[in-house]
């Protein structure tokens, strides 16, 4: 048996086996390096995967089965793309009455003529219904303007109650003069 083994184990076979073993060791080290780099690029805990990859063949297979599907840069790019699409879609909406697609700066629905936004009375820009002041010219929106004007002036009821008291003596004097003038004639 040893004679057969010595015939098969020639110096050429020894050199070939050394080369094969060296290639397997290089492949093993490269697989660990690949797992570490790939885990880092995918945003996972790379040093844990490096420890798992130290188990020959099983570690690499485990990593391949459980690694995240996207690279971190691809995931970030995808999130940015989704955010951009959402921002673009926010430019458009639907009419609450008929469901017709409308743009964000439409004042009325082109389909059913439902008023979507108010216009600023000063500068004419379209205003969102929830705004209390025009962001373009700082003019208070209709309901807010009335409150601001009422806060600056006396109340309408106060003016009515004070105005007749001041005007009443003058009206009484005018009412008395024509009677006196009629009696004097």
Automatic annotation (TrEMBL):
InterPro entries per the UniProt record, alphabetical: DZR
Biased composition annotated in UniProt, kind: Low complexity: 159-176
Membrane-spanning intervals of the chain: 15-36, 43-66
Pfam families linked: DZR
Stretch list, region Disordered: 150-185
Keyword terms of this UniProt record: Membrane, Transmembrane, Transmembrane helix
Name of the protein in its database record: Zinc ribbon domain-containing protein
């Amino acid at each position: 048996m040893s004679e057969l083994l010595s015939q098969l184990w020639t110096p050429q076979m020894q050199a070939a086996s050394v080369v094969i073993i060296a290639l397997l060791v290089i492949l093993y080290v490269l697989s660990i390096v690949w797992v570490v780099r790939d885990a880092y690029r995918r945003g996972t805990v790379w040093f844990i995967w490096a420890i798992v990859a130290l188990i020959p063949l099983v570690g690499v297979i485990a990593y391949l089965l459980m690694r995240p599907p996207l690279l971190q840069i691809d995931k970030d790019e995808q999130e940015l793309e989704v955010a951009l699409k959402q921002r673009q879609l926010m430019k458009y909406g639907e009419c609450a009455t008929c469901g017709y697609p409308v743009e964000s700066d439409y004042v009325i629905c082109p389909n059913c003529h439902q008023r979507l936004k108010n216009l600023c009375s000063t500068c004419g820009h379209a205003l969102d219904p929830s705004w209390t002041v025009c962001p373009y010219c700082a003019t208070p929106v209709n309901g807010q303007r009335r409150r601001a004007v009422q806060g600056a002036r006396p109340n309408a009821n106060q003016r009515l109650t004070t105005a007749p008291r001041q005007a009443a003596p003058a009206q009484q004097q005018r009412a008395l003069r024509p009677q006196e003038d009629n009696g004097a004639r």
